[in-house]
Design a protein that fits this description.
Number of domains of chain A: 1
CATH class of chain A: Mainly Alpha
Distance between the termini of chain A: 37 Å
Radius of gyration of chain B: 19 Å
CATH topology of chain B: Rossmann fold
Order of helices and strands of chain B: HEEEHEEHEHHHEHEHEEHH
Strand content of chain B: 15-25%
CATH class of chain B: Alpha Beta
Largest sheet of chain A: none
Radius of gyration of chain A: 22 Å
Structural class of chain A: mainly alpha
Oligomer: heterotrimer
Largest interface: A-C, 54 and 58 residues
Chain lengths: 247, 277, 225
């Protein structure tokens, strides 16, 4: 058997501009979804721990159900289903942001919850003893500690968001993956182009993972001082997640 | 399994002689990492005659446990050799020569199957019952049938007074009971030499006596033993010879009673007076 | 807005009429995931053993493999194998073969890390005890290390399975006849996107719930006294 395939790597370099543009869109999409789920995730976590039973149940159901769905199903559901019902015409970008946010809010709520639960009760008691009202003691004592604990895991979530965001290409968003699909259709060099894109994603993921690891080490160093009881709990390392993301 | 039984000429060679001779044993941990290198053993020679009990004493970190692991090659020595029942093995593994490697592995298996060891922390297999713990070696390394191994396992457990706990899991046993099972597990291999690595150090004080009693009975039955221990009463009463180790070397060696009652080296004196006071 | 809501007429008929097609599609997702998961476990175990090897020449490639595979998004991997590799090697995979290859390889990177963690969690004394009884390397893995590792790794492996199941829903993009494709076709033919995609969302949530419950049962069954 002769090995007939002639590699055309020059197509990749010729497409660098378009790919870079796609990469920017991937980063924008991921960053936006990350920021939104960072806020909403906290809200859901607080709802789960709030002293109001129906709210707890609602938040619990949300985290359980919404973590069970794949990003692809979210995308289809929002881009086609919700859009049809409410007559809203989502662009692929908006649909992608909503889908990624809904999924990752559920994940982040779990991270926040674990972090909040890891704060010793003594911290809250100390804050209340100082006469701080509940909301202030949460904002200035509990949350800052919990956030530090949660931060490395939250940044790891960004890794999953970036990977998952590639799915939005399916509904025509010209992110890194979407641009690549487009290029393949025009230039007929699937191996070269998909390899280039895969390598780009790997590089991006490795950088973000390294960032999360660095952050974790930094925080561990900063918080290890403090009072005797002020040892900040660390969540179990999630540097090696045990599932391939929401896909 | 003919290759596993001691060859006749080897046995003739050791008749009245040594069961095990370890010569010039060197061992360094973290070798090659200059800053973390620890020279644990620096040229140790020990030997035990058939039926004798050699007690190894010394401060912690003196290399006693490491020495035991060199003798059964759980942690092979960097330098030096061990001759057991007339067969000599060194720590140099013939990594890239398949034929020699296979021969080496066979020798290694001979050592491991004929030398029993009892650990400080028992190291029982938590996912197996006491009986299965004891039967594992006989079935998997000696090739006994399941029923033969089971029979032998129950017999060994009964011998150490654990017959009733044959079907218990390690988590359901006390420390003393665990160590009895561990002893039974080692004896089920019908070893020619038993190593005890601080077998009573992890036990509650009230359980130590029972295990020492078990070890004494074993010694009286004629078993050849090397015992690492801090129990000087046991060393004096049951030991035939005592070796005092410090900083990876044998500092003093002699008959048990005279060495413990009348140590010559001043480091031995300091150690004994500290431990006996 | 209210007018817009009313403009959409719910029509569950097409979905309910095709319940059997949906379930058949779901079955494709399940068996592809199951097979890929089994392959991923075998491969992952091998990689984990390599990662724990004393030889750097074995350790490093295994480490690189894990890092590399986990950095590639599933969809990119799927396209790379289905369109890219096929054209280079000159043999074309069927869509389902491509999906199984991608899910197995992706899964193996995750299971490798899980097995590595599980094996490392076991006390070194266990290996010493086993070797001291004359068991070889393989027998030690088989009778001493793996039975203990299994109990540690079941919960995280369950997460991997769910992750692969969710990943499997991407197969329809390369035209595997799974439940997502059934839903997409229903939507195209009857324009009932909400109903069609709700159906597969419900099926997926149910599958995950049933699977999670089975994992808990398995965990309890294997728990030692």
């Amino acid at each position: 058997m002769t090995f007939a395939y002639v590699f055309q790597w020059e197509i990749v370099s010729e497409s660098a501009g378009a790919l870079a543009h796609g990469l920017r869109l991937t980063l924008e999409l991921s960053a936006l979804a990350f920021a939104l789920s960072l806020v909403l995730g906290l809200a859901v976590a607080v709802a789960r721990l709030a002293p109001f039973r129906p709210l707890n149940v609602l938040a619990y159901v949300y985290t359980q159900v919404f973590r069970a769905l794949s990003l692809y199903i979210y995308v289809l559901f929002i881009y086609f289903g919700i859009a049809a019902i409410f007559g809203i015409n989502f662009g692929p970008f908006a649909a992608g942001v909503v889908a990624l946010t809904l999924l990752n809010t559920a994940y982040m709520a779990e991270i926040y919850r674990a972090a909040l639960l890891s704060i010793e009760p003594g911290q809250r008691e100390a804050a209340l003893a100082l006469g701080l009202p509940h909301s202030r003691s949460f904002a200035s004592v509990i949350f800052p500690q919990a956030f530090r604990t949660a931060l490395p895991s939250l940044v790891n979530q960004l890794v999953d968001i970036v990977k998952d965001s590639s799915v939005v290409a399916v509904i025509g968003l010209l992110d890194l993956m979407g641009t690549t699909i487009d290029l393949v259709n025009n230039r007929h060099a699937p191996f070269e182009l998909y390899t280039a894109t895969a390598v780009t994603y790997v590089a991006l993921i490795l950088v973000l993972s390294a960032l999360a690891a660095l952050l974790e080490r930094r925080l561990a160093r900063h918080v290890s001082g403090g009072s005797a009881g002020g040892r900040v709990a660390r969540l179990p390392r999630r540097r090696f997640a045990d599932h391939p993301g929401g896909a | 399994m003919p290759e596993l039984s001691a060859e006749p000429e080897a046995l003739a060679g050791i008749a009245g002689g040594w069961i095990v001779v370890a010569e010039g044993i060197h061992k360094t941990f973290n070798r090659g990492h200059a800053d973390r290198e620890v020279r644990v053993l620096r040229g140790v020679d020990v030997s035990v005659a058939k039926g004798d009990v050699l007690v190894v004493i010394g401060p912690s970190g003196s290399g006693k446990s490491t020495l035991l692991r060199c003798i059964n090659f759980l942690g092979p020595p960097d330098e030096g050799s061990v001759t057991f029942l007339g067969r000599t093995l060194t720590g140099a593994v013939p990594r890239f020569r398949p034929a020699e490697r296979m021969r080496y592995e066979r020798e290694l298996r001979f050592f491991r199957t004929h030398i029993g060891i009892v650990f400080q922390h028992f190291n029982l297999f938590p996912h197996m019952t006491a009986a299965d713990n004891v039967a594992l070696g006989p079935t998997r390394a000696l090739g006994l049938s399941r029923s033969q191994a089971r029979e032998r396992s129950v017999a060994e457990l009964e011998r150490v007074g654990m017959g009733e706990k044959a079907n218990a899991y390690p988590s359901q046993l006390s420390g003393g009971q665990k160590q009895r099972v561990a002893i039974a597990r080692a004896l089920a291999m019908r070893p020619q030499l038993m190593l005890f690595d601080e077998a009573t150090s992890a036990l509650d004080p009230e359980l130590i006596g029972g295990i020492l009693e078990e070890m004494k009975r074993l010694a009286e039955s004629g078993m050849t033993m090397i015992v690492v221990t801090h129990e000087m009463g046991f060393a004096r009463e049951v030991g035939d010879r005592v070796v005092f180790m410090d900083e990876g070397r044998v500092v003093e060696e002699g008959p048990a009673r005279s060495l413990i009652d009348n140590p010559q080296n001043e480091r031995t004196q300091a150690f004994l007076s500290a431990i006996l006071s | 807005m209210t007018a817009a809501v009313l403009a959409y007429v719910f029509n569950w008929g097409p979905v309910l009429d095709r319940w059997d097609e949906f379930l058949l599609g779901a079955w494709v997702d399940v068996w592809v995931t199951g097979l890929s998961f089994a392959l991923a476990c075998c491969l992952g175990l091998g990689i984990a053993v390599l990662r724990l090897s004393g030889t750097a020449l074995l350790r490093w490639p295994a480490f690189a493999y894990v890092q590399l595979i986990r950095g590639v998004p599933l969809l990119v991997f799927l396209y790379w194998v289905y369109f890219g590799i096929a054209i280079v090697v000159g043999l074309s995979f069927s869509p389902i073969e491509a999906a199984i290859i991608v899910l197995s390889l992706t899964g193996s990177a995750y299971t490798a890390e899980i097995f590595r963690g599980g094996l490392q969690a076991i006390d070194r004394g266990q290996v010493e005890a086993s070797r001291s009884l004359g068991l070889g390397r393989i027998a030690t893995y088989r009778h001493v290390l793996l039975p203990q590792t299994i109990r540690i790794v079941i919960p995280p492996l369950g997460n991997t399975f769910v992750g692969l199941l969710k990943g499997a829903t991407l197969m329809s993009i390369i035209a595997v006849q799974d439940m997502v494709l059934v839903a997409t076709n229903v939507n195209i033919n009857y324009f009932t996107p909400f109903e069609a995609f709700t159906a597969i969302a419900v099926i997926l949530v149910a599958l995950v719930a049933v699977f999670s419950a089975s994992v808990s049962v398995l965990e309890r069954t294997l728990r030692l006294p």
